[in-house]
Amino acid sequence: MTYDYLIAGAGLAGSVLAERLANGLGRSVLLVERRTHIAGNAYDCPNEDGIMVQEYGPHIFHTIKKDVWDYLSQFTEWNGYVHRVLARVRGKAVPLPISLETMERLFERPFTAEQLAEYFEQHRVRLESIENARDVVVSQVGEELYELFFKNYTKKQWGLYPEELAAEVTKRLPVRLDRDTRYFADPYQGLPRDGFTSMVDRMLESPGITLRLGTDYRDVADTEEFDQLIYTGPIDEFFDYRLGQLPYRSLRFQLETLEAERFQEAGVVNYPNEEDYTRITEFKHLYCQDHPKTTVCYEYSAGDGPPYYPIPTQANRELYARYKALADELDGVHFLGRLAQYQYLNMDQVVANALDLFGRMRTDA
User: Fold this and answer.
1) Which ranges constitute the DSSP H helices of 189-238?
2) Strand pairing class (61-63; 188-190)
3) Which residues, in sequence order, are bridge partners of residue 231?
């Protein structure tokens, strides 16, 4: 059989594009995935006790893009979960991002919005320019809060101190002058009611999509006929590392099921300083699930292992730019997703990029 498209990777990027090409353009798609499951790192399933878990760490969908939300809502209902994160510092669990609630719990004194703004103004470091992730934080909240919440957490997460990383790493977390303890202020957020895996499975129900799990695209590229390739894996791997290997940060997860209804106050608790792990996730919060037991996930950052996060340094961006130049020379090959684009993309950005690429393909069709 000749396929119109071969898509490498059945995560969100590849699955959204497969669905659109099959149902939106009537194209035939061969979707291959090296792992034995769909949904990529958002893969979730019930464990042996019936508790929904995410094997690759917490994923909460959030977006300001109504078109992205509406697109995914064709394949799922949402459970209404609102993400809240605590950080354990100085023996206390305080909300992130930093807000009035955070400061009052941390310093055990009341703040008004005006007093908090004045505190930040007095403590922030005045810089002529923002050069790195450390500069972002100290220019907003000063050295003390930087040391408490960001310095060591970033070192654990990335293997580098904030001054060694691009500013985008810490720009993701705002500072608030109110009592909003939501981690994300996006108007659309939550988890698919039946899980991410179920949502993606519904995307792939089209008869125009042929799915093969446990299959590397290289295993079929020479044996199957297809017109165009969409690649969602690491871009340096695609080119056999001919320019050198792009650095990625990996993760390790330790899941434990406990004889307790609840383990912690929030779905995610960060540990910026004392512990080896970066955070603990309790999945029952995320899935709004009632169960006499609970499953928690200890998350450790690692230098070796499967690639999760592109490391945003200037040298790495320059190497990626050289790989992208090679990619731009290819006809009929499209690079899509966090690893292929070497960007730290949220799930909604991945979906939006896939829909944008589909829009360009539809125009060219």
Assistant:
1) 196-203, 217-221, 235-238
2) antiparallel
3) 8, 335
Each residue's pLDDT tens digit, 10-39: 999 999 999 999 999 999 999 999 999 999
Q: Is the pLDDT of residue 190 over 90?
A: yes
Which domains are assigned to the chain? 2-38+204-246+311-364 (3.40.50.720), 104-171 (no CATH)
Q: How far apart are CA 171 and CA 341, in angstroms?
A: 20
Task: Record the tokens describing residue 155, joined without a space.
Answer: 């070192």
- Specify the amino acid at residue 97: P
In the chain, where do the E strands start and end?
2-8, 29-33, 44-46, 52-54, 61-63, 85-89, 92-96, 188-190, 209-213, 225-231, 248-258, 268-270, 279-282, 294-302, 309-310, 333-335
Of 189, 173, 162, nearest in space to 96 by CA: 173
- pLDDT, one tens digit per residue, over 57-88 is 999 999 999 999 999 999 999 999 999 999 99
**pLDDT value of position 144:** 96
